[in-house]
Amino acid sequence: MVTLKGLREKIEQLESEKAELKMEVERLRKEAEGKAVALECEVAVLREEAESLKKMLDVF
């Protein structure tokens, strides 16, 4: 049988782990958002480059 003390310790441990995981998820979310923004910029540049190349090929 589990004692009240044991349950309290388990709950405290889980609450601590929960807080740590929330912080990690938030950090990872911000990192992912930053990478998504950078990727959007790269895609925009590539689109512009592709469009420029198409126009250039149409001229020749």
List the helices and strands and how they pair.
Elements: H1 4-59
What do these coordinates show?
With 60 residues, the chain is mainly alpha-helical. It is 93% helix and 0% strand. The protein has 1 helix and no strands. The chain has one helix spanning 4-59. The chain is rod-shaped. It starts with a helix and ends with a helix. The mean pLDDT is 96.
Brief summary:
This protein is mostly helical. The protein has one helix at residues 4-59.
Number of strands: 0
| H/I helix tally | 1
Indicate the radius of gyration in whole angstroms.
26 Å
If you average the pLDDT, what whole number results? 96
SSE topology string:
H
Straight-line distance between termini: 84 Å
Task: Describe this protein with a few key phrases.
1 helix; mainly alpha; 0% strand; 60 residues
